[in-house]
Amino acid sequence: MLVTSGIPRVSDLAHRHPRNPLIRPEDVPPSRPGWEVLCVFNPGAFRHEGRIGLLLRVAERPIPGPDEVTAAIVDPLTQQIVEIRVKTSDPDLVHTDPRIFHHRGVGYLTTLSHLRLAWSTDGTHFTVDPQPFAEAVGPLEGFGIEDPRVSRIDDRWLVTWSAVSACGVGVGAGETSDWSTLRRLGMIIPPHNKDCAIFEERIHGRYAALHRPSGHGLGGNDIWLGYSPDLVHWGDHHCIARTRPGSWDHARIGAGCAPIRTAAGWLCIYHGANAANRYCLGGLLLDLTDPRRVLARSAEPIMEPLSGVELEGFLSNVVFTNGHVVDGDCVTVYYGAGDRYVCSAEFSIAAILDQMEPMA
Ligand code: MAN
To answer: Whose alpha carbon is nearest atom 2 of ligand 1?
Structure first.
């Protein structure tokens, strides 16, 4: 938020849909009996056969009994779901963050996420599939799969997601040409890395992607660019945008979904969080032929948590996106509000570009 002469002036450019939230946890049937869907959020978005498809992140848990917290993991050896139940009175329980608890020194996520399709002919009324499209598989996904990003390249869609396990968070990927089967490509970038958005065109013959390693000790939570000949092997990495001290994107930044080709450059909508975990959206403009070069960046957020479900949710003060569809100057951003709901907002691409500041 900008403050001029004591009058707050909001830089927010989002035209939020009046029917928000578009999808709520109660709209999504749980994947197994005795479980409940706590959050549906952070969808990938794409067009297919005249419809808008969303690939939802569905976060579920075993329904807790009285005075209980629950978690579930996929056993790396047997692939069976293991339910964990801990009494809230247990002195060995540490539970200060809604997303995670520790019991006897072992960390658990409070939800297990899978990916689920939802379809719409108007982009706002969605029908949610009764079954998951993709679930955690193998030892690198024991804590679930999260935040899918969808890119259209040639005749198929590439999907990346955060693969979460006791080994850390890395980037899992797969491809589909019909949205009924997913061909898995394995973990394409190892921990700790997430927010992987693949460009929808090759650049000088190579695939390109934005991604977000996390530094422990030295380094930070910045946006990187990498290249690949085959989508599986990634290299030629460059750190292209860093967090900005004292700014709305001070603590961590990460790409939304596929950068949008504009005459001025690749427009990348990204999320930034400050030290208080307040998540906003901004824009980065990258050179069309050399996307290592950042041409412009939003000084202020193009969207910030302002409305009810954005301010109070599973995690409060969060707008987060990893999916959009483009129609001329209009980009419809599907976003997670408060890490609990799916919402949408329209932006004028020209207005986003106008508000960005050229890099010196
Ligand atoms: C991280 C991820 C996202 C989540 C945001 C905000 O970036 O876990 O899934 O939406 O934090 O909590």
So the answer is: 147
Q: Would you say 196 and 160 are in contact if contact means Cβ atoms under 8 Å apart?
A: yes
Alpha-carbon distance of 253 to 212, in angstroms, equals 8
Write out pLDDT tens, residues 23-33.
999 999 999 99
Rounded to whole angstroms, how far apart are CA atoms 197 and 212? Answer: 10
DSSP one-letter code for 31? S
In ligand 1, the atom with minimum distance to the C-alpha of 146 is: 9
**Which atom of ligand 1 is nearest to 254's Cα?**
7
Is 0.70 surpassed by the pTM of this model? yes
**Both tokens assigned to 204:** 């000088």
Name every residue whose Cβ is closer than 8 Å to that of residue 257 and which is 6 or more positions away in sequence: 44, 45, 149, 150, 151, 197, 269, 321, 322, 323, 324
- Pocket of ligand 1, beta carbon within 6 A: 42, 146-147, 279, 315, 318, 320, 336, 339
Helix (H, G, I), strand (E, B) or coil at 351: helix
The DSSP code sequence of 100-168 is EEEETTEEEES-EEEEEEEEESSSSS-EE-SS-SB---STT-TTEEEEEEEEEETTEEEEEEEEEETTE
Helix (H, G, I), strand (E, B) or coil at 295: strand
The 10s digit of each residue's pLDDT in 124-134 is 999 999 999 99
Of residues 160, 183, 164, 163, the one with CA closest to residue 173:
160
Pick from 219, 222, 171: nearest CA to 197: 171
